[in-house]
């Protein structure tokens, strides 16, 4: 199967079999603009002038602007002789860009069911949902049989309020909308500040459950990015130890995923590691799925340098999210819901056309649920069309 995101526009322009006329006639005009915010743009025109000569702002060329605004990681991909292209954003604004930063993302290679959005009426959409549930009615995870109830709790949309969350080991440490903020006495917790307050509770009171064993860790990174990867790891390690009570190796076992010998060694010894932190300069599907393949199902948490840089030097949120994600994969429980819930899997569908929404699958574990923490469970992914 051909990858949806494959070549850059520069690759096509450098290919003698692809003339500019053929590019404009045969290629879909949607591209991913690979800069820190990775936005989808529409190709408008291909100019004759190179990126080193076309000025975009205050006398800066396209190349110089990219180096200044996006950083060397992106600018180093640009050949100063490649032609400048014009792209448009959703707002309609036209922007000059380098073709080597435009990765081809053809919409006509996406599944029809995705591109149709909300073309189905409510009843047909409901029937398709039921058919999908019939497909996944029963399956097996490890040696556990899982059944899916095809009768939903409700047919209409349900909205759930913010639950009461428990932190730390003290039963009195809980937070909920309207309650006094125990991290800052005298203030009430509001919906607006729900997420940052959760972080504050976790940092002040710690997780509901953690453990003190030393965690054997590996660090996987591009060969030339070892120092940057180690710096990111150190920030995450400090957070997990200070805020989550989880001790990672002071020096993780290093492996470069673009060095054949390192990959071979990692495949051989990945079993002794409790978890692996993958470091990518910026997110790309090929590298991400390669890491998953190399580790063959062993726990992996990924962080990107661009994710950290997007915070304009303030990487606290990225470090926290990465550290908590890593800890949760090891069995740490950051918080629990007051009263708990019975074990159910809820699958949410959003199919409201162009409006933004959320599709999510959440597993809520009840009091009588068997614990599978530490047990290796492997599943074979299945595509349902």
Widest sheet: strand ordering: 6-5-2-1-7
What is the overall pLDDT average? 76
Oligomer: single chain
What is the count of DSSP helices, taking H or I runs of 4+ residues?
Answer: 12
Give the overall silhouette.
globular
Question: In words, what does this structure look like?
Answer:
The chain has four domains: 9-109, paz domain; 112-158 and 339-364, no CATH class; 165-205, no CATH class; 214-337, Rossmann fold (3-Layer(aba) Sandwich), CATH 3.40.50.2300. A hairpin with a 7-residue loop joins strand 10 and strand 11 (174-175). The chain is globular and about 70 Å long. Helix 8 (226-244) crosses helix 12. The model is unreliable at 1-5, 108-118 and 352-385 (pLDDT under 50). Strands 6-5-2-1-7 form a five-stranded antiparallel beta sheet, with no helix packed on it. A four-stranded parallel beta sheet has the order 15-13-16-17, with helices on both faces. The chain has twelve helices and 20 strands. By secondary structure, it is of the alpha+beta class. The protein has helices at residues 9-14, 20-26, 62-70, 72-75, 112-115, 122-135, 194-205, 226-244, 260-269, 285-295, 305-309, 316-330; strands at 30-33, 39-50, 55-57, 60-61, 83-88, 94-97, 102-104, 138-141, 144-147, 165-166, 174-175, 214-215, 217-221, 247-248, 253-256, 275-280, 300-304, 336-337, 344-348, 360-364. Helix content is 30%, strand content 21%.
């Amino acid at each position: 199967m051909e990858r949806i995101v494959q070549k850059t526009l520069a690759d096509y322009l450098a290919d003698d079999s692809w003339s500019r006329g053929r590019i404009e006639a045969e290629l879909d005009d949607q591209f991913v603009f690979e800069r820190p915010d990775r936005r989808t743009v529409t190709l408008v025109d291909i100019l004759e002038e190179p990126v080193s000569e076309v000025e975009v702002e205050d006398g800066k060329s396209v190349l110089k602007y990219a180096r200044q605004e996006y950083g060397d990681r992106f600018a180093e991909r640009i050949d100063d002789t490649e032609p400048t292209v014009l792209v448009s954003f959703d707002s309609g604004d036209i922007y000059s860009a380098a073709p080597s930063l435009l990765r081809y993302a053809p919409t006509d290679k996406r599944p029809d069911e995705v591109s149709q959005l909300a073309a189905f009426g409510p009843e047909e959409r409901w029937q398709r949902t039921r058919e999908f549930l019939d497909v996944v009615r029963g399956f097996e995870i490890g040696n556990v049989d899982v059944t899916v109830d095809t009768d939903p709790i409700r047919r209409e949309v349900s909205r759930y309020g913010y639950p009461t969350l428990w932190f730390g080991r003290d039963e009195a440490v809980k937070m909920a909308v309207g309650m006094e903020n125990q991290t800052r006495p005298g203030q009430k917790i509001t919906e607006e500040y729900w997420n940052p307050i959760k972080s504050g509770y976790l940092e002040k009171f710690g997780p509901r459950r953690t453990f003190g064993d030393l965690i054997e860790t590996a660090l996987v990174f591009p060969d030339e990015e070892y120092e940057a990867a180690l710096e990111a790891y150190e920030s995450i390690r400090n957070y997990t130890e200070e805020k989550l009570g989880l001790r990672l190796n002071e020096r993780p076992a290093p492996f470069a995923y673009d060095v054949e010998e390192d990959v071979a060694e990692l495949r051989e010894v990945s079993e002794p590691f409790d978890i692996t932190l993958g470091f990518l300069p910026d997110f790309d599907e090929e590298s991400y799925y390669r890491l998953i393949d190399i580790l063959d199902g062993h726990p992996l948490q990924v962080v990107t340098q661009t994710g950290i840089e997007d915070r304009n030097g303030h990487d606290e949120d990225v470090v926290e999210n990465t550290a908590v994600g890593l800890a949760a994969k090891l069995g740490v429980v950051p918080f629990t819901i007051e009263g708990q819930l019975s074990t159910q899997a809820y699958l949410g569908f959003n199919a409201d056309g162009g409006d933004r929404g959320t599709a999510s699958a959440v597993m809520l574990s009840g009091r009588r649920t068997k614990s599978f923490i530490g047990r290796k469970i492997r599943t074979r992914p299945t595509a349902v069309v």
